Amino acid sequence: MKKRNIALVVLIAVIALIGAACSSSSDSDGGDFKVAIVAPSASNDLAFTQSMVDAANKLKEDGVIGEVAVTDGTFVVDDAAVAIRDYASKGYDLVIAHGSQYGGSLQEIAPDFPEVSFAWGTSADTFGLPNVYSYEAASDQGGRVMGLMAAALSKSDNVGIVGPIEVGDAKLYVDGFKAGVLAGKPSATVNVNYIDSFSDVALASEAAQSLIGAGADVLTGTAQMVVGAVGVAKTEGVLWFGTQANQTSLAPEIVVASQVYHWEHMLEEMINNVKDGTLGGELYKITFANDGLVIEYNDGFDLPGDVKKIGDDAVKVFKDQG
Amino acid sequence: MSIHLSPRNRRLLAYSIPVLAVFAALLFGAVMLLLLGANPFKGYAEMFVGAFGSGDALIATILKATPLLFVGVGIVIAFRANVINIGAEGQMVLGGLFSTMAALYLPEMHPIIMIPLVLLAGIVGGALWGWIPGMLKAYYRVNEILSTIMLNIVAVQLMAYLLRGPLIDPAEIERGTRIPQTARLAASADLPILFGDRLHIGPVLAVLCAIGAYYLLWRTPLGFRLRAVGLSEHAARYAGIPVRRTIALALTMSGAMAGLAGAVLVFGSESHRMVTDGSTMGFTGGAGFNGIVAALLGGLHPLWTIPASFLFGGLIVGGQALQRAVQVPSALIVALNGLVVVFVVAADRYRVRLLAVDEHEAAAAGTEDGETVTMGAARDAAPPGTDSYGQDEFDGGGEQ
Amino acid sequence: MSDIFTTAVMVAVVASAIRLAVPLLLASLGETFGQRSGVLNLGVDGIMLLGAFTGYYTVLKSGNVWMGLLAGAIVGLILGLASAVIAVTLQAEQGISGIGIYLFGLGMSDLLFQKLVGTPIPIDTFPAIHIPVLSEIPYIGEMFFQHSLVIYLAFAAIPVATFVINRTTFGMKIRAVGEYPDAADTLGVSVSGVRYATEIIGGTLAGIAGAVLALTLGIFQQNLTNGAGFIAVALVYFGAWRPTGIMLGALLFGFVNALVLELKTLEIIPRDLSNLAAMAPAIITILALVFVARRFRAPSALTKPFTRGK
Description:
By secondary structure, chain A is an alpha/beta fold. Chain A has helices spanning 3-25, 48-61, 77-89, 103-109, 139-153, 168-184, 201-213, 227-236, 264-275, 305-321, and strands spanning 34-38, 67-71, 94-98, 117-121, 132-137, 158-163, 189-194, 218-221, 239-244, 255-261, 283-286, 293-297. Chain A has a 6-stranded parallel sheet with strand order 2-1-3-4-5-11, with helices on both faces. A 6-stranded mixed sheet of chain A has the order 7-6-8-9-10-12, with helices on both faces. The chains are: A alpha/beta, B mainly alpha, C mainly alpha.
């Protein structure tokens, strides 16, 4: 290579470096509060991870947060631990460990960074540490509300649920939905099919087929692999209730409603606490009462008024409970 | 090959070929970073700093390299016997499960007894999961690549069953959250910390294993048998070596090393417990595959696998640091990992060829260059048709 | 509980088994060509994933499922060519380079999806075709004759593959190269040429298999195949390198999966034990491998790179 070429390459490199430095420092209109999210699935999963990433980005738009960093797809717990440590040591003010499986690691990491605030969910345990917040979603509430509506909508008195692995948030939702259906119609049949995978879309789709074959005319499901089940519901003309994120876009014809997680209110409160110097120690739970959970109806679906009233009433009961 | 190099330079070039292959893959990665609108210079600078640039980074790299080295050493042992073990993922899971069960069920004991016992349990678990495909290959002619793929599936389901059921943290049942993980395991089984908060004795054990493997392969009768089978099964059989038993043993030992890697992952983890997300990689971090690449980077030599694992560990840790620094999707790092594997494996041929030329010239000066070499150093001298990486050479059933 | 023995349930299980079997079947058939010529491609799952994404993305943009299938095939063809360069020309260790191709496909398909699409958007799927008369037959019709066109095409590919391998000159060359590459070479058959051809066929079919999966589900997601490509490779051994055997293997695998699913729906399998039930397909495959290995022999040159004059 000629000398001039080398000089050119160096020049380009320098320009590029400067450009990168400028671009990364120009987007901080929301103060200098920095939030990092470490999450197990993809940030566009239309489910658990996306719900938190969306909330953080919304707060960034609102100017509450200056910078959001995301490390998604971190299903290896030890890699998540490295990421959490790294963000904590790089001056992030709040590091969100968005997966219940990260708890054991966080318990070891948080004491090493007393100046940094951590949030861990879904869980209900801060390990008694002063710089750890915990958060969870009362997904059983939405499950119950939609279960009641499903019972009213089902003509065959048979409702099916597709689950991933029977753990955590998924189990809470599934149990709530099942209880809701049975409360609405004690004689109804509720079949639950946990496919033992968070990722097998094809198996989720066959599970939906199987539930429909067993007589279900209303389905629901939770976790990222249910996109396969929604597709089946759509072709078979069976109704669908979504959770974690608004799933109307997947099948506008048959999605009745979705329970949507709105972490932003909780997150904003958490951030204000951190700004005021309280780094942790509190448990948060998003519910209907604090507007963290919202039933988002599909406007395109012609929901009978009396069924919508069942849903609204059930939400009201939860809101009144506080 | 027209360029003439001195044997020493040729050897040097041979050993640097895998490293050059890594650089070639990173060049591809640079293009991808550019397309993603990220600055490759900044990215790779962050990658280097994230892997080697600070004490914390070095510790993270060493810890990441540890399972790679364990697995890599096992790969080398199997490869010398002309067996490829791509089942390390499942063997690591079994190692983790066995050692976890030992820690849960053994009574409280002094760490000096406890730690060797739990590690031994891990070795047993991995060895079992290596013995099954080894035995199936040696006695039932079942291709080990296929049996290990299936055994990985069985291992994952076994892990999910155990961690959701019999081994689950009782607190998880109480809370109703049911995260598939054990309780924090007995503190007496924690790997002793050498330095800082995290650097435990695992890396030292791995290096000792590498040295042990070197000793085993070149200084013991068993090592001789393994290498003899690897060089030529027919010749080994005529020499009275029990070929089938040796092959089964090679996979068993390879599995044992992977099992130890799994045990070290559990007791050296931040959380000191076993957790599953329902996949093997969620537990192993892909070390069962990447350990093979580390072994190749190290020229399938147990001692060279030590620095190779360190470099490859740095590559993974640095890749993750790159993702955090320039905020590209982490899927890029997975793709890049794949490219590194492909490039290293594809370039391996040239490494073997360079080394073979060396040997040829030493043996008979002036012969044609190394066109006769088969893949992998272990098979260099195998006459045609005898390297039964397939499965049909037993009982002389191969080539009639 | 005798629910499982009702005809309606069994009909549903069989129909489900056929749907689950088809992507495996297509990918396996492709892999068979490669293996019969002596090349193992363990990267099938990666190729399937990229085929699935391309197929999905093409349908998303064009609205035409057949265009999607074609796009998946083209990507598969390119990756098959790349696999051939790696395995045949560069003579890389086939078991390991395949893992690299898999990881590349896994990461790359996810990356493209995130950058080009974002969150999952449903696309049109292949419409189910009710074959006249046949689909009216009670039970049988519902099991076999109410599927989409690609499913019939996949099964039609089996006799074609058998014919090509056993009855054509090209097939004879494939078998020769896989069993006796030196002899084939002496007779003027280009060993590398044949292996390039079979790898390209294998890649193309893997790409199609991925596209069929995405276009049947009507969606794409990270790791959509969930390891189906590895099962497909195993099925080639399971089927003893014969298209009919592979079909039986794919159907058995699909059937066991569908049956376990059905048993879970009907709550016949206790939930605590469902993981143990999920091991069944893998364990059955291992046992079958033992059986197959006793009766059939792998192509002798499988996984062995060819160098002239050896």
